[in-house]
Amino acid sequence: MVTNAGLKDIPGKPLPETDIPALELVSVSYSYGKRQALDDVTFSIAPGTCAVLLGLNGAGKTTLFSLISHLYATRHGHIHVFGHDIDRRPGNALRHLGIVFQARTLDLDLSIYQNLSYHASLHGIGKRDADRRIHEFMQSIDMSDRLHEKTRSLSGGQIRRVEIIRALIHRPSLLLLDEATVGLDIKSRATILADIRKLVQEKNISVLWATHLIDEVAYADQIIVLNQGRLVANGPVGEVVKDAGAQTINEAFSRLTGVLALDTGRQL
Ligand code: ATP
């Protein structure tokens, strides 16, 4: 991986977008008081890659997302989004980011259209352009007929799919999803994962998908495993399995985290 992080911020030294990682973390550490949540984490994601961030509860996934999305300031290390330092150039970096947080954030008393158009206007997108994008996205997930319904009439899985669309309205090039499928049934999870895979392929979006559900790695080009705040594996699934001396990703995850992973029956 060529490391061009930061260079795009130097006037007169632009680099082709293709040479710049979608996301790059260099030696990132973070503590809540004395509790260290992240310890010297370094990895990068190439443009157009679907990366899964795998870790048990408390591994540091949400903390990492809070740093990437600039909710917290990076005190140790550097984070670059398409070459823009999130702390030095937050506006430039955040323009590239779409985020779906763990907690639900749609207003249930507004219609889906109202939720989406409100978000579009926050990003300075004009009504005509916003309407076109909203219709296009709702069509792509086969939910156009629900557009003017109250959001509370949707199922949990459908709400999640609308939240993903909302995160994409301003056309980000990197989508962060924090445990986006938690609490959903197998069918809804599969639909969301297929939506994401389609987006990566059709729109060349990079994705960082945080999960503790090991079967979700089947959709990933790259997996990043965090354990107690430390990066313990990073690479394509096959490579991570091989490097851990395992036969399956379940077995690899179990070895890397020191716990018994649930057997999903999937042989990877
Ligand atoms: P989960 O899958 O349960 O959401 P996670 O991988 O997202 O977990 P984090 O929420 O980032 O993990 O937590 C990492 C560590 O930091 C944990 O030990 C957690 O207790 C601690 N932590 C997280 N938020 C805070 C906070 N606001 N104050 C103190 N400690 C925190």
Task: Describe the protein in words.
The chain has 268 residues and is α/β, with parallel strands linked by helices. The protein has one domain: P-loop containing nucleotide triphosphate hydrolases (Rossmann fold, 3-Layer(aba) Sandwich). The protein has eight helices and ten strands. The strands form two sheets. Strands 6-7-8-3-9-10 form a six-stranded mixed sheet, sandwiched between helices. A four-stranded antiparallel sheet has the order 2-1-4-5. The radius of gyration is 19 Å and the shape is globular. Mean pLDDT is 86; it is low at 1-16 and 262-268. The chain binds adenosine-5'-triphosphate. Adenosine-5'-triphosphate binds next to strand 2 and helix 1.
Keywords:
268 residues, alpha/beta, Rossmann fold, 4-stranded antiparallel beta sheet, 23% strand
